[in-house]
Amino acid sequence: MKPERYLPAPGLSLVLFLTWLLMVSSIAPGQLLLGLVLALTIPLSIRRLWVPLPPVRHPIKLCLFILRVLSDIVKANFQVSLLIWSPRRAPHPGFVVYPLQVQDRLVITLLANTITMTPGTVSTNIRHDRSSLLIHALDMSDEQALVKDIRERYEQPLKEIFEC
Amino acid sequence: MNLSFMIEALISVLLVLGGFFAFTGSLGMLMFKDFFMRLHGPTKGTTLGIGCVLIASMVYFTLYQQEPHFQELLITLFLFITAPVTGHILAKTGLHMHLKYITGTQGLQPELKDEDVGQSRVARPARPKRPGDIKARRKQLLKSRGR
Fold first, then answer.
1. Has residue B142 been placed in a domain?
2. Strands A121-126 and A94-99
3. pLDDT confidence of B140, banded at 50, 70, 90?
């Protein structure tokens, strides 16, 4: 009767429980019970697909990172809107290969999602050997500057947060 | 009374802004020239639009129903998870199907390696349909004819 066998991912269970309570927005005993059942059964049923999250070493840095990404999302929206509303100024799109330094699957996923949400870039393909990420940039003037920008703004903080 | 007017003004501004950004994101689908550029509109333009509407909704229901509303945060969370993943899958599909992109596209010609494709159930078009390649093929054709 090991606890890991019935509770493979305690963090995930907690998140599921809280999400359920938020969704029904009540703390009636019935909902608590249902939430508990879901929090126990869902991690068990997806156990084989679950990639364990590397431990977060610096929660404060994670908060700063989230704030930075949020502000970048707002900036990204303004930039893309500007491009859409000024059709005379044709954007210069381009593909960039971004060499990855992090190797953890989940961190790469986080990085790729961040890249998609932030200014002018969409991640299009991850090499199977996790060596590089193919990025489509909407308006690219300098390839090297873009790679450097992503490395300094997003990959370094992620590396520090998860220490990998 | 003055305060409630301010709050209503704030909510209205947020709603209008939200509508504006969501519309802009959709307009991007029309204005951009190729598939990969069109992806940028919906993945980004709409995020802020929906964000604005959700904040407005949170403020409105918290103040006028006298109870905190946080379900909108969940919508934001789901949106932040699904939007980039959808964008990534669509972009990858675009590469897979050798979709055309406009001639000005910089950088190297993106090509999926065999291991990226894997055992695909969807047949890939045999030849890339990009403009540069058509020219190269024509050159090859002319060369072979000249010979």
1. no
2. unpaired
3. low
Select from A136, A138, A143, A146 the residue whose CB has the most chain B CBs within 10 Å, as the one to mutate to test that interface.
A136
User: How far is Cα A143 from Cα A128, in angstroms, rounded to an integer?
Assistant: 23
> pTM value?
0.77
> What percentage of chain A's residues is helix, strand, coil (to nearest 5)?
60, 10, 30
B102 domain residue, yes or no? no
Lowest mean pLDDT among A21-30, A96-105, B22-31, B103-112: B103-112
What is the span of the domain harbouring residue B91?
3-96
CB contact under 8 A, A92 and B106: yes
* B136 inside domain: no
Cβ pair B105:A91 closer than 8 A:
no
Per-residue pLDDT reduced to its tens digit, A56-84: 778 888 889 889 888 888 887 888 788 78
Q: What is the dihedral of CA B41, B44, B48, B53, to 10 degrees?
A: 60
Q: Is pLDDT of A159 > 60?
A: yes
Provide mean pLDDT across the span A134-160: 82
Residue among B27, B70, B84 minimizing CB distance to A113: B84
Looking at the structure of chain B, the number of domains it has is 1
CA B142 to chain centre: 40
Q: Does ipTM surpass 0.85 in this model? A: no
In angstroms, the CA A10 to CA A6 distance is 10
The DSSP bridge partners found for residue B95 are none
Q: With an 8 Å Cβ cutoff, are B107 and A87 in contact?
A: no
Does B90 map to a domain? yes
Which of A12, A96, A134, A135 to probe by mutation at the B interface, max B CB count within 10 Å?
A134
